[in-house]
Amino acid sequence: MKNLYFPIQGELEDVIEETPTIKTFVIRPEAPIGFRAGQFMQLTVPGLGEAPFTPSSSPSVTEKMEISILKTGTVTNVLHEMKAGDTVGLRGPFGKGYPLDSFEDKEVLLVGGGVGLAPLRSLIFGLFENIDKFKRVSIKYGARMPEELLYRASYDEWSKKPKTDLTITIDVPAPGWTGKVGLVTTLLDDVDVDKSNSYVVSCGPSIMLKFVTAKLLEIGFQPEQIYLSMNRKMSCGVGKCGRCEVGPYYLCKDGPDMNYAKVQDVPNLFS
Amino acid sequence: MAGPVEESDTVTLRLRRENQPFKYAGFRATQSLKPFLFVAKEKVAEYPLPVGSETLPAVEPVTVVGAAACDLTALKTLDAVFMSEEETDCFYAERRENTLTISMECTEPRDTCFCTMLGNKPYADGGFDMNLAKAEGGFVMETGSEKGESIVNEQSGLFREATSEMIAARDKAREASLQKVREINRRFELSRGRQEILKEAPENPDWYRHVKTCIECAACLFTCPTCHCFLLYDQRGADKFERLKVWDGCVYAGYSRMAGGGTPRALLVERFRHRYTHKFDQIVDRYGIEGCSGCGRCIEACPGKIDMREVFKALESMGSALKAAQGAGA
Fold first, then answer.
1. Among candidates B114, B173, B155, which has minimal Cα distance to B295?
2. Tens digit of pLDDT for each residue in B146-164?
């Protein structure tokens, strides 16, 4: 018999400061954890509680896991004070993960905002590791300010990967910034992926998902082509505690990435 | 052993204190079977502990006497949630395994009872270990499981063959009770399915009328035999950290509020509606059964006098009116 609610221990091997509000936690779990890109973990701050995060590291690495986390609530505020050597708890992985098989022979457009690039990075690694199976990887990413751009040191390397392109924008002009300015949706105005043979995966704040989805539909994508990393409060991770429901689905079991065609009629989808 | 005991004017299912008499009230008790299987607050983990040495439930066998047919119906929802997904909640499963259920038939249904509207009856067809129907000079007892059967075999001195008169009297009482529940609910009968009514009218203005007297007390949720939402809650224990599984309720604003403040149900009317859509739409899609047993506890417990049957009736007629208006406008 298995106890679904028991967290295994993980040691924080390193804490990397990515931006003023985002840190990457490098965790070595007591036992290896295999996951598919897009699946998520429940991370425990001992004595305080859990919060759900999708790993940002490669799904092919099981003995070590990286999770990039925005400081934004009770659990993450304390997490951001933790140091290498501290202990956390882990349950998971939960959820279905991205449907990588159906992306084969297709162009994959990734649209991320802010810390939303964190879950997408594990997908990016997954795509890079089998790049010959996919036609193209096109990454569109935006953050509020230059210093909020996540994984800045990797952009050059990613852009140089075969079949890959990366475009970055920041929301408002900033001193010294010579790149694109505007919300991430503006990067979709002249998107050149093959709409008849592609999938889109988007991750970011709910309000961004709402406008990205509207934009994608406006420029001719079909609801079936769009996968959204939805946001809902979670607790159990196994479809029992009730709170992460989106229409007839539980994000923790059926998501957290949902095909837009399945959920488009759900009230308050993006709140 | 637990059973129906009298407590401040009501009869509730409780673990019996020494020699406390059981009371056969003739209808379902104030408290359902749920708290015996899905405990209101339970320690489900201690940590840190090495992998493989996690806490597993230590459960004492319990016999519960006096569960009503609606209580047994409600277990179908709880079983589906806690036991039939790929992941079984070992705490629920262990308690389920270690609970002997002796049900009792309802002979005096209350005006809040509506089991018949859910296709059920005030007496159980199955789902019990043993079932009791009050009859002249004792009870007519039926077994419904191997566990129940073996008790009868072990304690054969307590039982004798029921006479045909007793069985006829039981059947008569059953029929009378069934007709009574049907009569009580005549005015709430719907001409369409509940799921259909909910699906066609997410924006039905009638929600706003019914939610007016809701004070977010969650009495409907906590007395409900099928409501199963919970929260995992961590705290410091004596020498380890502890994780508790505690009942939660979708009527609370904090239930679905995320870090950063976002929530899909900021308005009370949205949370109120959610309780209906979860039970009669989403659970139906997910498990193929309605998440309600028709026990009527939510009606009885509500200080705002909200009656689920009236809500559906009103939604249905408002829904039809809206449809007709749309048709006329087209």
1. B114
2. 999 999 999 999 999 999 9
Inter-chain CB proximity B89 and A44 less than 8 Å: no
The verdict on a CB contact (< 8 Å) between B259 and A72 is: yes
Q: Are residues A31 and A139 in the same domain?
A: no
Q: What total of structural domains would you count in chain A?
A: 2
Host domain of residue A173: 100-229
Encoded tokens for A22: 């985002």
ipTM: 0.93
In this structure, are A114 and A36 located in the same domain? no
Token pair of A47 as six digits: 């004595």
* Predicted TM-score (pTM) of this structure: 0.94
Q: Do B55 and A3 touch (CB under 8 A)?
A: yes
Q: Choose the final residue of a domain: A94, A125, A149.
A: A94
B245: chain A residues, CB-CB within 8 Å? 5
Asked if residue A136 belongs to a domain, the reply is yes
Nearest to A3 among B54, B228, B285 (CB): B54
> B65 has which bridge partners?
B102
Distance CA B263, CA B257 (A): 5
What CATH number does residue A105 fall under? 3.40.50.80
Question: What tokens appear for A89 in the block?
Answer: 């708890």
Chain A: give the shortest CA distance to residue B139, in Å.
Answer: 38
A8 touches chain B (CB under 8 A): yes
How far does B46 lie from chain A, in Å, by closest CA? 7
